[in-house]
Amino acid sequence: MMALSIAGLDPSGGAGILADVKTFTALGVYPTTVVTALTAQNVSRVASVKAVDTDFVAQQIDLVLEEEDIQHAKTGMLYSPKIVKVVARKVKEYQLNLVVDPVMVAGSGGSLSQANMAGSLKKHLLPLARLATPNIDEAAKLSKMVIKDEKDACEVAVQLGKICPTVVTGGHLDGSDIFYENSLKKIIGKKLDSINTHGSGCTYSAAATAYMVKGLTIEESVRKASYFTKKAIVNGSHGTLNQYWSLKD
């Protein structure tokens, strides 16, 4: 069982590709990766971003998939509309089952995308996705709506869910996730009082991808990803998650 992460590199190890690799590994899925951007960041702040050339992004995807029979992939930080278009082209070319984590802003507040990223994701990538996993800030950018409460989150989930199945993760609200796939469902949870949340969105989307690789339905994958991520936060340290919580003796 294998999966592909197409995302940015966080050298602190908390988010991005490294969070995806840890999550895939913890869940028994072999990780492969394509780097879209290099960041200078830690848990507290993002100092700068260097995007990878689009041709090199495409070449990475081609070389990984030339050798491996990978059917499931997830995207994280893509940074620019140009990279979004390249990734969308490759997703169609290889008919990948795609999970989109629409990363645009770091939890610390630093920008992880260029202008018009939301529009590009919504136009080019979400229509190809089997699942999108925005938090409320990302969902607000994609929908151009303000999300103040659960009612707003439900409205946005329905709007985005008409493009692809969508879960609006609730870590910034009451801890419950709002999932839409043909109908609206609430995945009940509680808000966690923890500082160990850096990389939680990456972990959630990677976990959902891993469960889909294992043959679970989208809804089952979302529910298990929600539980896995919360447990990783509870067992976290140094401001980030511990994806290996389930492997403890």
Report on the structure:
This protein is an alpha/beta fold. It has helices spanning 16-26, 54-67, 81-94, 117-125, 136-143, 150-161, 200-213, 218-234; strands at residues 2-9, 30-41, 46-51, 72-75, 97-100, 129-132, 166-168, 177-180, 184-187. The strands form two sheets. Strands 3-2-1-4-5-6 form a six-stranded mixed sheet, with helices on both faces. The protein contains eight helices and nine strands. Helix 3 (81-94) links the parallel strand 4 (72-75) and strand 5 (97-100). 40% of the residues lie in helices and 20% in strands. It is globular. Helix 1 crosses helix 7 (200-213), helix 5 (136-143) packs across helix 6 and helix 7 (200-213) crosses helix 8 (218-234). The mean pLDDT is 94. The longest helix has 17 residues, at 218-234.
Main attributes of the structure:
249 residues; alpha/beta; six-stranded mixed sheet
Quick recap of the structure?
It is built from eight helices and nine strands.
